[in-house]
């Protein structure tokens, strides 16, 4: 079961709280909500780079969803079709109509080479759907190498032959501070609960009430503010300096139109 829940009837995406680290609910909420905006760009044969369990598979009405991940992945590998390094994709040129790469680029030692490979196996005019963290904790250490500003993303993508079509921030300053606070408090509470000997269902129940529920409330409140009162949201939760991360849609240039 994935950490992403998607209702096809309403086209609404939600976080499956049972499948995420309790302290990561808020950041995952923003990632899933912004990834939902990319649905219309997925088509044809889709390559999911760093796919893990293919959590976003329900988002895209594609002809094929092919997942690759590296052999040493710490995530579930039951949905991986091909084990490969992202910097050396084992596919022919122009084999795919869509590339999906979520929360992967920061873990690659040679990100430009990986993006060049994604461009190589993409059809001209096809889309790359990419997400990266920005103000975010160290994770999957020691393989956590980079954080990317929007300027770096545009540079790397343009070098690979892509043009940025859309760039979405995942919350702003208030969201970042709330994430830091919830992680600190949530980690302390989890240690306290475990110290009392709580395990299994009892532990998860307390985490749901005291760690996940507050994040759910704040995340939904701030997200609704951005959606319904964007002007006020830009004042209270500005994302021009601080954000949890970015979701980018980029289009591969038609080689005939490139200089």
Overview of the molecule:
With 259 residues, the chain is of the alpha/beta class. It folds into two domains: 4-171 and 240-257, 3-Layer(aba) Sandwich (Rossmann fold), CATH 3.40.50.150; 173-236. The protein is 35% helix and 22% strand. It contains six helices and nine strands, in the order ββαββββαβαβαααβ. Strands 5-4-3-6-7-9-8 form a seven-stranded mixed sheet, sandwiched between helices. A two-stranded antiparallel ribbon has the order 1-2. Helix 5 (200-228) crosses helix 6 (230-236). The protein is globular. The N and C termini lie far apart (46 Å).
Principal-axes geometry comes out as globular
Secondary structure category: alpha/beta
CATH superfamily of the largest domain: Vaccinia Virus protein VP39
Summarize the amount of helix as a percent range.
Answer: 25-40%
Biggest beta sheet attributes: 7 strands, mixed
What fraction strand?
A: 15-25%
Stretches where pLDDT falls below 50 for ≥5 residues? none
Q: CATH fold name of the largest domain, please?
A: Rossmann fold
Elements, N to C (H/E): EEHEEEEHEHEHHHE
Number-wise, the strands total 9
Instruction: Write down the overall mean pLDDT.
Output: 94
Q: How many domain units?
A: 2
Judging by the overall fold, what is the CATH architecture of the largest domain? Answer: 3-Layer(aba) Sandwich
Q: Order of strands across the biggest sheet?
A: 5-4-3-6-7-9-8
Number of helices: 6
Tell me the Rg in angstroms. Answer: 19 Å
Write a concise keyword list for the protein shown above.
alpha/beta; globular; 2 domains; 259 residues; two-stranded antiparallel ribbon; 7-stranded mixed β-sheet; Rossmann fold
